[in-house]
Amino acid sequence: MRVCRMDVHNAKQRSFNMSQIRNRDTKPEMIVRKLAFALGFRYRLHRKDLPGKPDMVFAGAKKVVFVHGCYWHMHDCKYGRVVPKTNAEFWQTKRQSNVDRDVRDQTALAALGWQVLIVWECETRDVEALGERLSKFLGRGEVEKVEVESVVVETTHL
Ligand code: ZN
Hints:
Elements: H1 5-14, H2 28-38, E1 44-45, E2 56-58, E3 63-68, H3 88-111, E4 115-120, H4 127-137
Parallel strand pairs: 3-4
Antiparallel strand pairs: 1-2, 2-3
């Protein structure tokens, strides 16, 4: 994954209180995990007995969350629409097979009665909006004030 230092600086100046940051794990999945936890939701990770090994499993509510990288899962955003420059055919095929598998997994999960939420990597940049989406999906009507500063980690992933 490409790390862009410039990006970190912009994010720092723009909106986040970076002085609060202790966690150095920059994966989008970690952002979603921390956020869900801060919102009071408890979950299990990567349950192997479910189709697609969902990133987060909320068993009581029978809901799962996948955190997808925009490029590898071909999100319809500027990161997902990037066309590989070298070995284009090979990487396109690989990405397409990810997308096909996602559809299969989500269909299988739905057939088993699970509700599925996809969180895209690019969406983890707006933690407040993401918090609202998560709360809505996980069935909490009123969104509590989230202490964003304690949740956000460095966004060096895009
Ligand atoms: Zn995206």
